[in-house]
Amino acid sequence: MMTKRFLVLAAASALSLGGLAGCATGFRADVARFQQLPPAQGQTFTVMPGDNRLAGSLEFAHYGDLVAKRLIDYGYVRAADPASAQLVVSLDYDIDKGTQRVRSTGFARSPFYYDPFFYPGYYRGWGGWRGRYMMGFYDPFLWGGAGYNDIESYVVYQSRLRMKIDRAGGERVFEGTARAQSVSNKLTYLVPNLIDALFTGFPGQNGEEVRVTVAPEPKN
Questions:
Q1: Nearest 5 degrees, angle CA 66-CA 78-CA 217?
Q2: Tell me, what's the pLDDT at 159?
Q3: What is the C-alpha to C-alpha distance for residues 26 and 123, in angstroms, rounded to an integer?
Q4: How many CB atoms sit inside 10 A of residue 199's CB?
Q5: Which residues, 6+ apart, have CB-to-CB distance to 220 below 8 Å?
Q6: Rounded to a whole number, what is the distance in angstroms from the first to the last CA of the chain?
Q7: Between 54 and 144, residue with greater pLDDT
Q8: Looking at residue 67, what DSSP letter applies?
Q9: Residue 175: which of 186, 164, 159 has the closest Cα?
Q10: How many C-beta atoms lie closer than 10 Å to residue 115's C-beta?
Q11: What mean pLDDT do residues 150-177 have?
Q12: How far, in Å, are 39, 102, 147, 151 from residue 107 at the CA level?
């Protein structure tokens, strides 16, 4: 059973600095999915690393188990023998080295406000991928103005999780990517949340791109 609540929002909503921290407002990710998955009817699967360097990694095994649990929730069965699996799930994830950002802590705000993280535009990264809702050209934290006396800096990290599902014969039936920005670079925080985002409404509509917010765990 899922332990988190999910809220799917339109991809045009803005992300504030508080949202980047992933605290009160939850974890936000842009999810894209392409799929031709048949209805789940107990098909067996195995989870493999997309990067062969992760083979045998305890870290990857942990994240692979999280993915397997989601697939089991949706009606698939983890194969006892990976060689006999009907579906092969490939998983990889990464995070960049971060981008330094600065902002003023003064009381005044420039009237020319632009969202620094989701200004319409295109961003190039991860082997040439271009996608919307990444860092734009205009940045309110770099604009001058009255009251901008105190300056502080922080680092924004771009993280990505990608999952592919192939039939045993090699036919691709699913491709999904979840991307997020955060001030945290901890994979133990980012990867589970990216997995939760990717599996929200799984398998989704073919060719869809949505903004997903994973609500924080309820406090006791």
A1: 20
A2: 95
A3: 24
A4: 24
A5: none
A6: 19
A7: 54
A8: H
A9: 164
A10: 17
A11: 92
A12: 55, 15, 6, 12
**The pLDDT of residue 41 is above 50:** yes
The torsion defined by the Cα of 75, 76, 80 and 85, in degrees rounded to 10, comes to 160
pLDDT in tens, 92-120: 999 999 888 887 765 455 444 444 444 44
Residues 6 or more apart whose Cβ sits within 8 Å of residue 71: 45, 78, 89
Alpha helix positions (H), 50-129: 58-73
Give the integer Cα–Cα distance in Å for 154 and 184.
Answer: 10
| Residue 48 token pair | 């493999």
| Extended strands (E) in 20-127 | 27-35, 44-49, 77-78, 87-95, 99-104, 123-125
Q: State residue 217's pLDDT score.
A: 61
Q: Are 164 and 149 in contact (CB under 8 A)?
A: no
Length of the chain: 220
Asked whether the whole model's pTM tops 0.90, one would answer no
- Range 6-95+153-214 has CATH code 3.30.365.10: no
Q: Is the dihedral of CA 9, 13, 18, 19 positive or negative?
A: positive
Closest CA to 2 of 49, 72, 51: 72
How many angstroms separate the CA atoms of 150 and 107, rounded?
A: 10
User: What is the reported pLDDT for 106?
Assistant: 59
> Which residue type is seen at 56?
G
Tokens at 92, concatenated: 């990889």
pLDDT, tens only, 42-99: 999 999 999 888 888 999 999 999 999 999 999 999 999 999 999 999 999 999 998 8
**Two tokens at 161?**
């999780």
